[in-house]
Amino acid sequence: MNIELIIKDQVAAAINALYGQTVEPAQVQVQLTRSEFEGDHTVMVFPFLKLSKKSPEATGIEIGEYLLSNVPEISDYNVVKGFLNLVIGNAFWLDRLNEAITAEHYGFIPVTDESELVMIEYSSPNTNKPLHLGHIRNNLLGFSLSEVMRANGYKVVKTNIVNDRGIHICKSMLAWQKFGKGETPETYGKKGDHLVGEYYVKFDHLYKSEIAGLIAAGRSEEQAKEEAPCIVEAREMLLKWEANDPEVRNLWKMMNGWVYAGFDETYKTLGVDFDKIYYESDTYTIGRDEVMRGVKEGIFQQESDTSVWANLEKEGLDKKILLRSDGTSVYITQDIGTAQLRYRDYPIDHMIYVVGNEQIYHFQVLSLLLDKLGYKWGKDLYHFSYGMVELPNGRMKSREGTVVDADDLVAGMVDVARAVSLELGKLEGYSDEEKENIYRIVALGALKYFILKVDPKKTMTFNPEESIDFNGNTGPFIQYTYARIQSILRKAKETGIVIPGRAENTRLNDKERVLLKTISLFPEVVKEAGSAHSPAVVANYVYDLVKGFNSFYHDYSILNEPDAAIRDFRLVVAQTVGTIIKNGFSLLGIQVPERM
């Protein structure tokens, strides 16, 4: 049983026994004891002073004595003002260590036929450009959250909605028609998503040039943006697409095919995948039909220009357009259709959208619209909102071609990992193939950890060089510690040492005790990461575990310990720490190399 729950239950029992008063265990405040005080867990005594009618110190002593007499897990206590610090006996931590050793997947809740199903949408790229650094954070968060939720006992369906239609797609298509001269990924010599992205940038340059010309001819900026020939052509192309014009549709299929092939390569490199991919081109018509049903039922309003709107002023929001006057759809229309299709495809209990915090309003609106259309699950959707990722020199802009391309970033990270490893001389004696594999594992570990260790809600700045340092709170530092542990275990095996299946030592030094306490926290960390929807909880726990192990390893020998029983105990601890590092990093989608 969780030690905090034991303490809460027993403190409630103590209040009843000592003062004849009833306190619910949930009202008892328990936290980890601060490092400057002796103890493992601290109980806040102040809330009970009205019941005890005594001083904080006297109340703390009375409760402490009751716990010492009635709770075998507690070996000592001390009171500092209104704080009761409890010392948990070594036997308890050894029991938790042995749980970790014997459990097949320590800290994970198994998925069963009765488990609830959570669908997690992430990535959601547009087919007019390659994936960039912002997409990387989205994909890594979405994939890691999926692993965390599965570890919390949920069935998980990972989905992607590809925004493959709309005016932005037509911009790339139109630019390719104007300037492409039949160019393909093969003739271009690069990935198809990169090719299409370059034409999106070319369209923006043309558009800005035409706007400047119209302004010079006397148009206002607003008029120029509406009347620029290329944007007029792009709108006409979108109407033709929605009318199933064969020429436009064939061009669309060809260029999207180029992009999908490029996306697949990037996803594979990042180590993320999906169980089901939806396409806006399939779902927007379902959404449009739903919107028109809303008009017939008086839920939405159709204006004289035939545009359709939802009035959300009573809900504290504003009016939201659902269909334009020319009949074309907007993003919210597609999301309505996609949601309906998903709930038709799967028995979803929870729906999580992994989308940046600039879309908070969008998902507030979507939830209300789905509810108004009669879908009970509308109010239950969860927007996993995360902050933007920036570079040391500022934000990125796709249309201006100033984004950090995902493929280029990963390749650059591998180059940095290679350079750092060569400088440190860590891979001497490895084949070139082995080296390249480790460079890749280290590079991706650095990238993923640097992004996932940050609270998702925060805007972050990504610094490639800082992320790949082999010291400090980085992925490579943790990977190197794991590899060091595996080296210790291999050497033990080579010398004929058999690592026992249970730990028996009760003579714990302070640093061993800290390690065992940290090991015992892993199940609660996994649980907290799931309830908070935050992979950062796991990332920072693993770093704390690694710091504790390295501090222990700096001060105490393992293989050279003369006492065989202590040596074997330390091997068990090292093996368990390694397993938790590996399992914790698996929740982040990070590999750990057996050798470095």
Polypeptide structure, described:
By secondary structure, this protein is α/β, with parallel strands linked by helices. The protein folds into 3 domains: 3-88, Arginyl tRNA synthetase N-terminal domain (Gyrase A, domain 2), CATH 3.30.1360; 122-390, HUPs (Rossmann fold, 3-Layer(aba) Sandwich); 406-586, Isoleucyl-tRNA Synthetase, Domain 1 (Orthogonal Bundle). Helices cover 56% and strands 11% of the residues. It has helices spanning 3-19, 49-52, 56-70, 90-102, 133-151, 167-179, 185-188, 192-216, 221-227, 229-242, 246-270, 280-296, 331-345, 360-372, 406-424, 432-452, 464-467, 475-494, 510-520, 522-532, 535-555, 564-586, and strands spanning 30-32, 41-44, 74-80, 83-88, 117-121, 155-162, 276-279, 301-302, 308-311, 319-323, 350-356, 382-386, 389-390, 460-461. It has a 5-stranded parallel β-sheet with strand order 7-6-5-11-12. A hairpin with a 7-residue loop joins strand 9 and strand 10 (319-323). The longest helix is centred in the middle third of the chain and has 25 residues, at 192-216. The radius of gyration is 29 Å and the shape is globular.
The largest beta-sheet arranges its strands as 7-6-5-11-12
Morphology call: globular
Quaternary state reads: single chain
Distance between the termini: 38 Å
Topology:
Blueprint: H1 3-19, E1 30-32, E2 41-44, H2 49-52, H3 56-70, E3 74-80, E4 83-88, H4 90-102, E5 117-121, H5 133-151, E6 155-162, H6 167-179, H7 185-188, H8 192-216, H9 221-227, H10 229-242, H11 246-270, E7 276-279, H12 280-296, E8 301-302, E9 308-311, E10 319-323, H13 331-345, E11 350-356, H14 360-372, E12 382-386, E13 389-390, H15 406-424, H16 432-452, E14 460-461, H17 464-467, H18 475-494, H19 510-520, H20 522-532, H21 535-555, H22 564-586
Parallel strand pairs: 5-6, 5-11, 6-7, 11-12, 13-14
Antiparallel strand pairs: 1-2, 2-4, 3-4, 8-9, 9-10
Helix pairs in contact: 1-3, 4-19, 5-20, 6-8, 6-10, 8-9, 8-11, 12-13, 15-16, 18-22, 19-21, 19-22, 20-21, 21-22
